[in-house]
Amino acid sequence: MDGGATPPVLPANPPEAVAFVVVGLLAGAHCLGMCGPLVSVYAERLSDRAGTDSLTLYHVRQHALFNVGRALSYAAIGAVFALVGGLFFGAFDSLAAIGSGVRATTGLVVGTVIILTGVGYLVGRSAAIDRLTPKPVTRVFRHVSGWATARVDRLVGGPRILGLGAIHGLLPCPIIYPAYLYAFATGDPIRSAALLALLGLGTIPTLFLYGTLLGQVSPRRRATLHRALGAAFLVLGYIPLSHGLMLLGVSVPHIHVPFYQPFG
């Protein structure tokens, strides 16, 4: 194709789609640490508006809108990361050897970061992973969270709760960081948006149950879920890592998942 390299529009492959859904399902317990306080606040406001603590259709609708807003936010930001990745790789494609080396290095770096994140969860060091968030980002999180909490009453009662959920895509989260890096490595905005949406939707069951029925998840059960999350990250990280190794001529078992491959 003339006029520069363009990443192909590819749907999410079954292996990576399943990996993102599993990460989302297991990440729900971690999300409670970040989103739980705000979920508790808006759940309480919903009960006040409905005049009952019992689960009603109104509660279900508002919780669904909140969580759909989160998933859409993740999808949009993932698409942006993939677009930047596609432009980054495309800049090197005029020199095939350099372009291949850049893609291989990116696969190795992204895969290693995701695997290290998984190891952190496996060995019970998820708190250490949380501390990797830069202080400026943490300050932004506090401001955004405070802004959202102060406006819960205005946002919680109607369709605008969708925006309250969308704000969460801007909050620092060690679960989402590796997913955004993976999106960057694909260079495919459409596919990445689908994958990040799947991850966001995967977190809904835990957050929905927390906001409507459970109210809490025991530390022991959360630790178990974190270990399972770590294992899922190991699988997800191996995909770009093996891709990078294959580009370097190292033959390893791999799952066939297309990363950035410009049309000629």
Defining traits:
single chain; 264 residues; mainly alpha; 0% strand; disordered N terminus; UreH-like_TM_dom
Q: Topology, please?
A:
Layout: H1 14-50, H2 57-90, H3 96-122, H4 126-130, H5 135-150, H6 152-155, H7 161-166, H8 176-186, H9 189-202, H10 204-214, H11 219-247
Protein name: Sulfite exporter TauE/SafE family protein
Domain Urease accessory protein UreH-like transmembrane: 20-238
Organism: Haloferax marinum
Helical fraction equals over 70%
Mean pLDDT, all residues: 75
- Helix/strand order: HHHHHHHHHHH
- Helical run tally: 11
Structural class: mainly alpha
Number of domains: 1
Keywords: Membrane, Transmembrane, Transmembrane helix
Protein name: Sulfite exporter TauE/SafE family protein
Domain Urease accessory protein UreH-like transmembrane: 20-238
Transmembrane segments: 17-39, 71-92, 104-123, 161-181, 193-217, 229-252
Protein model, in words:
The protein is an all-alpha fold. The protein has one domain. The chain contains eleven helices and no strands. The radius of gyration is 20 Å and the shape is elongated. The chain starts with 13 loop residues before the first helix and ends in a 17-residue tail after the last helix. This is Sulfite exporter TauE/SafE family protein. InterPro entries: UreH-like_TM_dom. Keywords: Membrane, Transmembrane, Transmembrane helix.
